Amino acid sequence: MSDIQRPEARTPRGFIDRRARDLVAERKILTAVSAIYERYGFEPLETPAFEYADALGKFLPDADRPNEGVFALQDDPDTDSGQWMALRYDLTAPLARFAAQNWETLPKPFRRYAYGPVWRNEKPGPGRFREFVQCDADTVGSARPEADAEIIAMAAEGLVAAGVPAGAAILKINSRKLLNGLMASAGVADDGQKLAVLRAVDKLDRLGPEGVRLLLGEGRLDESGAFTKGAGLSAAAAERVLAFTEAGAGRGDTLGQLANVIGGSAEGDEGLAELAAIDAALTSLGVGAAQAVFDPSVVRGLEYYTGAVFEAELLLDATDEKGQPVRFGSVGGGGRYDDLVARFTGERTPATGFSFGVSRLAAALRAAGKDAASDVRGPVVVIVFDQARMADYFAVAGELRAAGLPAEVYLGQSGMKAQMKYADRRLSPAAVIIGEDEFAAGTATVKDLDLGRELAKGVTDNAAWRAERPGQATVARSELVATIKKILDPRP
């Protein structure tokens, strides 16, 4: 018996391995959304995975060892000058650092998009991982409401480009200025009480008006018996807040109803004027109320955003792996954050942006049967009969690759049956079979594996399509490329 201590093969908690289907789905979303951003004139930017911890701000409560919320390590830990670095938890904090560091040389406003993995040192759960992919677009240096509208319009286009059917997603828009105006009109001045009110409003979708009413007052006892202390508002103030949240999800009418609730507050009126300008710009950009609405119940980034906030919500019916209904809700969000760059410069710099949760969006599309990688295929597999003719098999694969067709030669030691099973596991569209008889006759046998999978499902439609695609055919070598191309794209 061996005494060697072998490590257990295991995935770190909160992280996942992703194979072709996941990666291709995310890549398609990134390619589609990036094309939208570039069409609007945004330039790509890539910043490092690590930032110095002090540049990341509020996620770091412990300056001596800032690992809560992020993954951090010390730069040059054996020296007195060692500094803490942390993996980025989003793509916006690195942008703020970059803008502050390079502001003098940047075109202003600075319009950039970025994508890549981000990391959060948080407790993982179902569908909640410690590493995931985001795709952002931001404008830094413009305080105009039209800059917010443009970001929202891009998000709406990006959802469609990513594969979300028309009408299956909605952009919900609110403003922190309206929320601040609401606080003023309800007589809420204490910061702690403000935070409690906002948290109560944020639970409207989950708890409904009655649950929020309890949280705005003395508190709420949940099903488990746990008590959540409320914001302590008077009954009249609580009703004012609920009237704000129930102003409806529309555009023009919603603004009118909101004005009735918070009109007269200077900051609230400013927020209303900005939303009116956003409405006008969205209309001119062709974004109607079916794509983007004002929703006063939207609360994002309680201490982060300074103006307009927006959230992309999926309306698709989806099921989990057990066939149970699941609601994905938000797949992206953003808003105006005019104070972030000022952390470095001391000068307020207006900024607005939106971030797609690419990993979450890909998972949601799959759960809804709208998988962006549903057509993922492996390469054409060239079956090997004679090890002595490997050079000839590589020539066949080279011929297919030269025509732009992914292809590989089987490099294992197994026989015909195992090679066909290998091709099937690779999701190969076809296998090329060339034995001595085919070499002598200048032919190749092509097995249509896509058709085999279709027939295995017991599908009864597309009879004409199947009739024109024999499961296996022997063709002249000169016709091999055309035959494979017809399998990959059978359209006339």
UniProtKB/TrEMBL annotation:
| Gene Ontology BP annotations | histidyl-tRNA aminoacylation
Q: Which EC number(s) does the record attach to this protein?
A: 6.1.1.21
Quaternary structure (record): Homodimer.
For this protein, the record's Pfam families field holds: HGTP_anticodon (PF03129), tRNA-synt_His (PF13393)
Q: Which gene encodes it?
A: hisS
Offer a single GO CC term for the protein.
cytoplasm
Task: Recite the UniProt keywords alphabetically.
Answer: Aminoacyl-tRNA synthetase, ATP-binding, Cytoplasm, Ligase, Nucleotide-binding, Protein biosynthesis
Taxonomic path:
Bacteria, Pseudomonadati, Pseudomonadota, Alphaproteobacteria, Caulobacterales
InterPro entries registered for this protein in UniProt: aa-tRNA-synth_II, aa-tRNA-synth_II/BPL/LPL, Anticodon-bd, Anticodon-bd_dom_sf, His-tRNA-ligase, HisRS-like_core, HisRS/HisZ, HisRS_anticodon
Q: Does the keyword Nucleotide-binding apply?
A: yes
Gene3D superfamilies reported in the protein's UniProt record: Anticodon-binding domain, Bira Bifunctional Protein, Domain 2
Which family does this protein fall into? Belongs to the class-II aminoacyl-tRNA synthetase family.
**HAMAP family of this UniProt entry?**
His_tRNA_synth (MF_00127)
According to the entry, every stretch annotated as the Aminoacyl-transfer RNA synthetases class-II family profile domain falls at: 27-406
**What protein name is recorded for this chain?**
Histidine--tRNA ligase
Organism of origin is Phenylobacterium soli
Q: Which residues make up the binding site for L-histidine?
A: 90-92, 120, 134, 138, 300, 304-305
Domain of life per record:
Bacteria
Q: Which GO terms describe its molecular function?
A: ATP binding; histidine-tRNA ligase activity
| Catalysed reaction equations from the record | tRNA(His) + L-histidine + ATP = L-histidyl-tRNA(His) + AMP + diphosphate + H(+)
Supply the SUPFAM superfamilies for this chain. Answer: Class II aaRS ABD-related, Class II aaRS and biotin synthetases
From the Swiss-Prot or TrEMBL record, state where the protein is found.
Answer: Cytoplasm
